[in-house]
Amino acid sequence: MKKIEIIVRPFKIDDVKEAIADLGLRGMTVTEVKGFGRQGGHKEVYRGAEYQVDFIAKTKIEIVVEAERVPEVLEAVRNSALTGKVGDGKIFVTPVEEVVRIRTGETGPDAI
Amino acid sequence: MKKIEIIVRPFKIDDVKEAIADLGLRGMTVTEVKGFGRQGGHKEVYRGAEYQVDFIAKTKIEIVVEAERVPEVLEAVRNSALTGKVGDGKIFVTPVEEVVRIRTGETGPDAI
Amino acid sequence: MKKIEIIVRPFKIDDVKEAIADLGLRGMTVTEVKGFGRQGGHKEVYRGAEYQVDFIAKTKIEIVVEAERVPEVLEAVRNSALTGKVGDGKIFVTPVEEVVRIRTGETGPDAI
Amino acid sequence: MNAADTSFILICSALVMFMTPGLALFYAGMARSKNVLGTIMQSFVMLGLVSIIWAVIGYTLAFGDDIGGFIGGMNFFALDGVGMDTLNSPADNLPHLLFMVFQGMFAVITPALITGAFAERMKFKSLLIFSSLWIIVVYAPMCHWVWGGGWMGERGALDFAGGAVVHMSSGAAALAACLVIGKRKGYGKQSFIPHNLPMTLLGAGILWFGWFGFNAGSALAANGVAANAFVTTHLAAAAGLLGWLLVEGIHGGKPTTLGAASGAVAGLVAITPAAGFVTPMAAILIGFGGGIICYGGILLKSKFKYDDSLDVVGIHGLGGTWGALATGLFASVGAEGLFYGNPEQLWIQLESVICTWGYCFVVSWILLKVIDATVGLRVTEDEEIIGLDVAEHSEAGYQL
Amino acid sequence: MNAADTSFILICSALVMFMTPGLALFYAGMARSKNVLGTIMQSFVMLGLVSIIWAVIGYTLAFGDDIGGFIGGMNFFALDGVGMDTLNSPADNLPHLLFMVFQGMFAVITPALITGAFAERMKFKSLLIFSSLWIIVVYAPMCHWVWGGGWMGERGALDFAGGAVVHMSSGAAALAACLVIGKRKGYGKQSFIPHNLPMTLLGAGILWFGWFGFNAGSALAANGVAANAFVTTHLAAAAGLLGWLLVEGIHGGKPTTLGAASGAVAGLVAITPAAGFVTPMAAILIGFGGGIICYGGILLKSKFKYDDSLDVVGIHGLGGTWGALATGLFASVGAEGLFYGNPEQLWIQLESVICTWGYCFVVSWILLKVIDATVGLRVTEDEEIIGLDVAEHSEAGYQL
Amino acid sequence: MNAADTSFILICSALVMFMTPGLALFYAGMARSKNVLGTIMQSFVMLGLVSIIWAVIGYTLAFGDDIGGFIGGMNFFALDGVGMDTLNSPADNLPHLLFMVFQGMFAVITPALITGAFAERMKFKSLLIFSSLWIIVVYAPMCHWVWGGGWMGERGALDFAGGAVVHMSSGAAALAACLVIGKRKGYGKQSFIPHNLPMTLLGAGILWFGWFGFNAGSALAANGVAANAFVTTHLAAAAGLLGWLLVEGIHGGKPTTLGAASGAVAGLVAITPAAGFVTPMAAILIGFGGGIICYGGILLKSKFKYDDSLDVVGIHGLGGTWGALATGLFASVGAEGLFYGNPEQLWIQLESVICTWGYCFVVSWILLKVIDATVGLRVTEDEEIIGLDVAEHSEAGYQL
Ligand SMILES: Nc1ncnc2c1ncn2[C@@H]1O[C@H](COP(=O)(O)OP(=O)(O)O)[C@@H](O)[C@H]1O
Ligand SMILES: Nc1ncnc2c1ncn2[C@@H]1O[C@H](COP(=O)(O)OP(=O)(O)O)[C@@H](O)[C@H]1O
Ligand SMILES: Nc1ncnc2c1ncn2[C@@H]1O[C@H](COP(=O)(O)OP(=O)(O)O)[C@@H](O)[C@H]1O
Q1: Mean pLDDT confidence for D142-156
Q2: Mean pLDDT lowest for which of C28-32, C52-56, C60-64?
Q3: For residue F297, is pLDDT > 90?
Q4: In chain D, which residues have their Cβ closer than 8 Å to the Cβ of C44?
Q5: Cβ atoms of D23 and D106 closer than 8 Å
Q6: Is residue F398 included in any domain, yes or no?
Q7: What angle do CA B60, B65, B68 make, to 5 degrees?
Q8: What is the pLDDT of residue F400?
Q9: In this prediction, what percent of chain D has a pLDDT beyond 90?
Q10: How many A from CA of A87 to the centre of ligand 1?
Q11: Contact status of C101 with chain B (Cβ, < 8 Å)
């Protein structure tokens, strides 16, 4: 099993969700995060005091899938999250050793 | 060392925390997340416009423990987070290669 | 490739960011989290009812880097996040098997 | 008609109206985030529901020609004969319509006060039914008894601006409601922490502001009595605030912001029946006592193990009771209390306290039991977990 | 000069002023989080911009010596001859300056109402230009026509507190604005969910509160007419609230908090032209109708596929129109409508509706087109994505 | 007694009271999230603390029989002889109690204004001690000098509604406070970004609204002077708003929402001493100048490296000073300034400015030093990091 961690622009979340659902996967966990990267931040000014804000709102999506499904998920995510401008985000794939569904106690592929 | 990542219903967080503390573990990191899964979402309506909200508030708990303690943690978490209804959540176990305690610089099992 | 996950005190985030940027790394993802650990929580009181709040605001930083850069990042993070008091936080290092930059489709070291 | 008084009461009516959205925020800030809208709605909807009921039937029940000291007749049904001039106006210096609407604003906020008792678990539909009936069978009679020529006023009970009519009545109904509806799921186990205290403080600020219309306006004229009521109101709120903070400190804790807001409201409740009858210095004592007594009041619920979610019994019930009795002690302006040589007044006040609690508690309890047995009072367990906002209103409070 | 009336209108002016920050919150709560400040600003800045324009030129265009029924002369330019006494004051019981500033508060809120139509995408600079010109070429003439001695008032059109001058005019301008500026990026695809409904409810509470100054104050005296307008305003708001909730229920959904707030505002809009001319019972019908009609009004935008972001057309345009016609039906206090034997009034009202919509829509449309072609109306796509707060004001609303 | 004036000042007193919760929100929105309640509390508690002190001792020190031009006697101690009629009332058209409470509302907000200077780091206990003493040794004398028959008023200094008494005095105390208490931990290194600007904007709206009670109410009658003060107040706020936005633009940035709110407050501060003495057109200049000068004022703190957290010195200190001098330039209504042929007035104003700054700064500084040396002014470093909400009040602002 693998965990696919995806950082995308917040307004892309619905598109990505649909692309993944189209693959027949119905499970993901989403977190609001802030990203620092090549994409420039912006300036904020409060009563004459300037602040450079480097962190940009991003959305992190985590999907645990069987290893063999990783390539198709990567493909689907890339297509749905792409705008082509700096700041589109990253995908990280990491190993998962065990999965348990709390409700049933099922483990492994059955649990997702 | 392993990281145990647990997605549970938000109101279960105190129960899970206590179950884990009962094992003598005093360390975890908690994140508010939104989950998409088998559990149905709900409808929201604003001035006659309907929106289907598929994401449901969940809480993610991350606990890093020595590998041999994983089974007892899984057990404790399952028992404390269980309601038996769809949406109880998942547990993912992933490998951790190194741990450092910032304060002391300790590494490995000593650091947690 | 490795993912370095760092839990620090919220007001340390700018220092850590700069320390990492000084290493020439320009990429990280930040999440607001709550931590439970050795550091004591605090009491809150609402109309005479007392609540013990064990969770403390922390900030999680995730940085994906090439494996050989891990030691210098650990060093930089520790120095910049240190106050020496209980609650400074932890660093976890975990394996990453693949990285994709959504914008370009680049993978591996090129993608970060 | 007196133009200056009319000018004053027009604005006071607006001020009292503003208290209901203020109360909505005061309460909603103490609820959990998932119930913020449901809690606001329970107060806000009274502005719609009760205003109409009042104009159609409530006003005439309260201020129509007296029937046996108990209820008003139908002569002002649907505002018949309630006009732009002072004809038949209980306040002959004010347009009759203005007197009616000023009174109507009191009717609006009273059932809104009750909602704090069953916050976070009441069915919206049942709330509407309960409040509609309650206005007719509890509020209108109470109002008639005290201000509309009914028996309580006739016996000499002093209630300047609604200690019995508004606060004790809602407090008694609140007690009935907690007992009938039961505790919130998880109460005592999970944390029920206010989700937005700045909202509560804003609400308290609005309440304090509007209360000047409530109490000073109850002089029904822009005169010295109004000025006195204004001052007593302000000083009692101030003293209530300090009193609550003091007990918090003595009770081993820190002075809290929610305590400051609660204490101010406690002081305001306590001074309400007394506002026009006591001196400013007496008001300080009454308010200070209010802050301390209501702090005690909120501790009762842990003792007796009922879930009065936002402390309506503790603050409005007890605060109103203390205020009514204190009026019997301290009255010295246009009436005399015990400390001014008239012990009888205290007995009259005590009688009014007992009758108000008794009547309002019993009738509210019956209403609630009947509704519970028919429509059901409470949302389902799943709805309670998901929260009233989504479950009852298909909405979410925040998308920050 | 009448001191009681002066007292009343001084406070009413303050109440109407308070409506603009109230509107800012009402609107901003419905916007998305990244546009919260931009949305507040679009209303709040009118307090600065329009107040000055009004004092310098707007007031004299509206209330200066009539020129051909169409516009006021320059005799009050820069408040020349507008003094502390009643000299030349259109209301001879009030200091002339007071009449001026009371009217000025109406001028401030009207362009603020329009901003709901193009929320979340309008350039701030262009907004300032548009609003400045609009006050001069749309609002001031409209105000003159109706209240300043112009043709519409002369023909007998009834508009007690601004159904045409404030609500229809802003509704018509809003329609022009949605058409010219186009939809928000992602409209219809992404979710445009209100980010902070408690803020919207607070705004609604402030609006309701301030509206008493608006409508009762339009009697320009603390008398029976003011009392009647106060009551009709309150009951129409109440009925509008209930009406909207009812349709929501019938339409297959749940009663919503946003619906309660929207319905109350709809009722307030609908009663505005009628407030001093109808009875309280008629006001209930008008308000109830307002709630239902405006609910229908907001559905139009999905039908005709324009993006009137915060429903200015649906609520102010349609509500104001209904109110103007309803005045022609129900007027019975100091004027007669159809139901009181005077069908002609309805025709006069209809004429005023058509002329108001026609004039305001066309002139607003031209203004917007010209600004679009020169300065540009709309922020860039990137700015729209990042949000007005950062893009136009270098600020963020929340750091929670 | 004049009923119309009584009606007006009753409501104005309520409006001024409402400014303190408004200020609490205005300030708290600019604080960081962990200090939101602590910041609200520092203002809100004044409603309790100062109200009582004022009634007991403050009022008599300010308005009791003059002792040597410096302070009032004890004849009104604990409101002795301050009654419902006009007997001994400094305003013989108003109930004495009403005059007292109207003045009391000014006393409440003044120390609340100071709290902006030491926001996010002051011990709550020390705040209570400081404010209590400050009201007695700084505010009451200042008030006596200017309005209570003391030397400053006798010398002819013009201060219509509190440029010296309220704004310069709090500004000077604020400067002393920043110097004594020192910077916030991390100031200049970490970002100190407002946590909730919509809250600040709401606060600004409430302040603007309440300021009509403050300034127009200072006419103490519902007459032409009140109308003029109302108009000058509104136009100065409007012009201040525009002035600030303009400088922001010229200074190379974008017009900000916080700037709009700050500019409006700056304009309101600047017009306060002048409100009843100048024409509306002069008010526009004064307000506009206020916006620009106060923008400059807030830049001073970076120059001189003190941490005036919420810019009390920059806005109230400088704005009040500008307003006092501007009164000496522009006065033309019931008094004459330099531009109306009376250069002497400017000197008198200058003298009052210097004496006010001098007295208030020195005495505040001594008070603060003494408290610091005994009880300590500042929370510990750990408490500052965790935030005042938890550290000083055992509460959290938000659970969203
Ligand atoms: N090395 C990294 N580790 C963790 N997150 C990263 C890393 N690099 C980038 N990110 C995340 O990806 C987001 C996009 O990266 P950025 O460099 O701005 O653009 P792009 O993905 O187009 O190269 C960042 O905002 C950050 O959240
Ligand atoms: N494949 C997955 N990857 C990541 N998170 C998942 C996955 N499947 C489910 N989740 C998380 O677990 C939660 C519960 O899952 P759900 O399918 O609704 O119920 P159950 O756990 O009872 O089967 C989801 O809301 C989501 O947060
Ligand atoms: N075993 C663990 N797994 C996950 N997170 C942990 C663990 N132990 C500690 N943490 C995180 O690190 C933070 C700091 O830990 P704590 O024990 O309070 O202090 P210290 O790091 O100084 O030992 C905690 O608040 C929590 O977020």
Answers
A1: 98
A2: C52-56
A3: yes
A4: 193
A5: no
A6: no
A7: 125
A8: 87
A9: 98
A10: 7
A11: no
**Ligand 3 pocket, residue B13 CB under 6 Å:** no
Tokens, residue F268: 């309101």
Residues in E closer than 8 angstroms to D394, CB to CB, are 253-254, 256
Q: Which two tokens stand for residue E122?
A: 């309008």
What pLDDT score was predicted for residue B112?
Answer: 86
Which ligand is nearest to the Cα of residue C105, counting in written order? Answer: 1
Q: Name the class of domain C2-111.
A: alpha beta
Alpha-carbon dihedral angle through residues D209, E95, E67, E317, given to the nearest 10 degrees: 10
* Interacting residues of F304 by C-beta distance below 8 A, sequence separation 6+: none
Q: How far is the CA of A60 from the centre of ligand 1 (A)?
A: 11
- Amino acid code (one letter) for E366: I
Q: What is the pLDDT of residue F59?
A: 98
Structural domain contains residue E52: yes
Question: What is the mean predicted confidence (pLDDT) over F251-260?
Answer: 95
pLDDT in tens, B40-86: 899 999 999 999 999 999 999 999 999 999 999 999 999 999 999 99
Residue E399: inside a domain, yes or no? no
Residue B104 Cα, gap to closest chain A Cα (Å)? 28
Most ligand 3 atoms within 8 A of CB, residue of C36, C90, C93, C94 to mutate: C90
| Main-chain dihedrals φ then ψ at residue B35, nearest 5 degrees | -115, 150
**DSSP line for E329-378:** HH--SSS--GGGT-HHHHHHHHHHHHHHHHHHHHHHHHHHHHHHHHT-SB
- The number of folded domains in chain F is 1
Beta-bridge partner residues of A59: A8, A32
Does ligand 2 come within 6 angstroms of the Cβ of B25? no
Range(s) of the domain holding residue D126: 3-393
C37 lines ligand 3 (CB under 6 A): yes
- Element at A61 (helix H, strand E): strand A56-65
Query: Which residues of chain D make contact with E398, given a CB cutoff of 8 A?
Result: 400
> Which residues have C-beta within 8 Å of that of residue C104, sequence separation ≥ 6?
C111
What chain A residue is nearest to F315 in terms of C-alpha separation? A47
Nearest-ligand number for the alpha carbon of B96: 3
Mutate: best of D94, D208, D234, partner F, most F CBs <10 A: D234
pLDDT in tens, D321-363: 999 999 999 999 999 999 999 999 999 999 999 999 999 999 9
Instruction: Evaluate whether residue F250 is within a structural domain.
Output: yes
| CA–CA distance, F77 with F201 (Å, rounded to integer) | 39
Name the CA radius of gyration of chain D, rounded: 20
Q: CATH code at F192?
A: 1.10.3430.10
By C-alpha distance, which of F88, F79, F95, F89 is closest to F8? F95
Query: Helices then strands (H, E): number in chain F?
Result: 17, 2
Atom 21, ligand 1: residue with shortest CA distance: A89
Q: Which residues pair with C59 in a beta bridge?
A: C8, C32
User: Given pLDDT bands bounded at 50, 70 and 90, which one contains residue C104?
Assistant: very high
Give residues (CB < 6 A) around ligand 1: A 7, 35-39, 56, 58, 86-90; C 27-29, 62-64, 101, 103, 112
Print burial letters for F21-52: b (CB count within 10 Å at least 16), e (below 16): bbbbbbbbbbbbbbbbbbbbbbbbbbbbbbbb
Please answer yes or no on whether D395 and B42 come within 8 Å at the CB atom: no
Q: What is the ipTM of this complex?
A: 0.98
- Average pLDDT on D111-115 reads 98
Q: Which residues contact A17 (CB under 8 A, 6 or more apart)?
A: A28, A61, B36, B54
- In this predicted model, what pLDDT tens digit does every residue of A93-109 receive, in sequence order? 999 999 999 999 999 99
| Cβ–Cβ gap C29/A36 under 8 Å | yes
Q: How far does residue B3's CA lie from ligand 3's centre (Å)?
A: 13
pTM over 0.95: yes
Nearest atom, ligand 1, residue A55 CA: 25
Tell me the domain boundaries of chain A. Answer: 2-111
